[in-house]
Design brief:
By secondary structure, the protein is mainly β. It is 0% helix and 19% strand. A 3-stranded antiparallel beta sheet has the order 2-1-3, with no helix packed on it. The chain has strands spanning 3-5, 11-12, 29-31. The model has no long low-confidence stretch (mean pLDDT 88). The chain has a single domain (1-43), classed as Rubrerythrin, domain 2 (Single Sheet), CATH 2.20.28.
C-alpha cells in the first residue's frame, strides 16, 4: 500500500522508504486508501 509525502506529494512504497523519511527530508506520510463507497440504509 503506497504512501504520499505530506510536503512534496511524492508517492512511495514501504519498500522504498529508508528510515521512514522521504527524499525531501520530511517524515509525515499519508496512507493512500482505495475509494470505498459505503451504503447506509435509511430507516
Amino acid at each position: 500500500m503506497p504512501y504520499i509525502c505530506a510536503r512534496c506529494g511524492r508517492e512511495v512504497t514501504p519498500e522504498e522508504l529508508e528510515k521512514f523519511q522521504c527524499l525531501c527530508g520530511y517524515r509525515v506520510f499519508i496512507k493512500v486508501r482505495p475509494a470505498v463507497v459505503k451504503e447506509v440504509l435509511a430507516r
